[in-house]
Amino acid sequence: MTVAATPAARADRAAGVRAAPRFARGRAPFLVVAVAALLGGLWGALARLGLDVAAPATVIASHGALMSMGFLGTVIALERAVALKRRAAYAAPTLAAIGSVGLLVGLPFALWILAAGGLAFAITSAYMWHVRREAGIATMGVGGAAWMLASVCLALGVPISRLIPLVAAFLVLTIVGERLELSALTHPPAWSRVAFTGAAALVVVGAVVAVHWPPATVAAGIGLLALAAWLGVWDIAWRTVRRGGVTRYIAVALIAGYVWLAAGGITWVLVPDAPTMFAYDALIHTVFVGFVLSMIFAHELVIVPAVLGIALPFSRAFYAPLVLLHLSLAARIAGDVLGDVSVWQAAAATNVIAVLLFGAVTVASARGLLQPRTQPT
Length: 377
Ligand code: HEM
Fold this sequence. Notes:
Elements: H1 7-14, H2 28-48, H3 57-61, H4 63-84, H5 91-105, H6 110-131, H7 135-155, H8 164-182, H9 190-210, H10 217-234, H11 237-240, H12 245-270, H13 277-308, H14 319-338, H15 341-366
Helix pairs in contact: 2-4, 2-5, 4-5, 4-6, 5-6, 6-7, 7-8, 7-9, 8-9, 8-10, 8-13, 9-10, 10-12, 12-13, 13-14, 14-15
Bound molecules: protoporphyrin IX containing FE (HEM).
């Protein structure tokens, strides 16, 4: 996102229209750390599935923190810093990157460093709001505060199972804040802003209360459902999906993510206290894999060229990991519902394969090895 960008410019960007990029060498270390955190998180995930993958204890214990505050914290904060064009804004991605390395090597203060990253991110968002008083930016700022609070609670020893809604609030609000700004192009009625604010407030308040009282997860779940319904009605993805090429690909990934956001909301309402291992898995990954990773798959083709200056020509090959991710997640949740360990294990391991395949397609695109698709009219 760009602080001074017009809605039209941002819509172009969301639709995949890009200027020719120049590789930004200075930002490469962030990419290296983010990829390391992602790979460490995935390695830990395979071990958490019970597979014999000889993962170090640090990555097994830190899977959740590595994926959310580590990998996603670094890339989201970096994108914000690049948009803001202020040196001080790089404090958040720098701290998130140091904290990620700390988690990977088992540094005792790693969670406090991530918490400092969350604080820096919240301050950056507050500054952005000072520059441009828009509801979307305020929403992202609240997401930043949720990141900080979740990391502080983790560092103080609160079990991560109590913090799932708070970590989700960080990621969901940061992402939907951006979508809110782009939705201006569909001319939503004035009352829709009130509905959006109410839904986002339910997510945050439910998530904060759930740290002490897990049944409040129900309120956060209703908030997720309301946000999914809001995006279902007013997001521009419903218009752009009728176009072709990269524009349609991005819209398909967004819409699939919104379906999973609704599924997550329903899960949170039905099993807020996650009574079984399967319920816990579904409660977390409907939102974190179904919604959050789908958003990453959607936005990467736009964000990477803008942030790192690496051209990523679109090819239909990008659909392969996207489809694999959603089908394998559906199978994973079916395994959770049926309580079938082998279905759950195989499907969740396929989630990991989908992410690795997405990485491989990205590298192939960057190296010009794929048949590019031209921008649709
Ligand atoms: C891509 C494939 C993924 C796989 C195979 C996977 C696997 C797992 C497993 C097996 C667990 C333990 C579940 C349980 O105890 O019932 C877990 C927990 C968790 N996962 Fe994932 N995960 C994946 C992606 C993600 C992503 C993308 C995020 C965040 C953005 C995430 C965040 C978490 C969190 C916060 C926990 C709770 C950690 C804990 O209780 O220690 N996961 N994951």
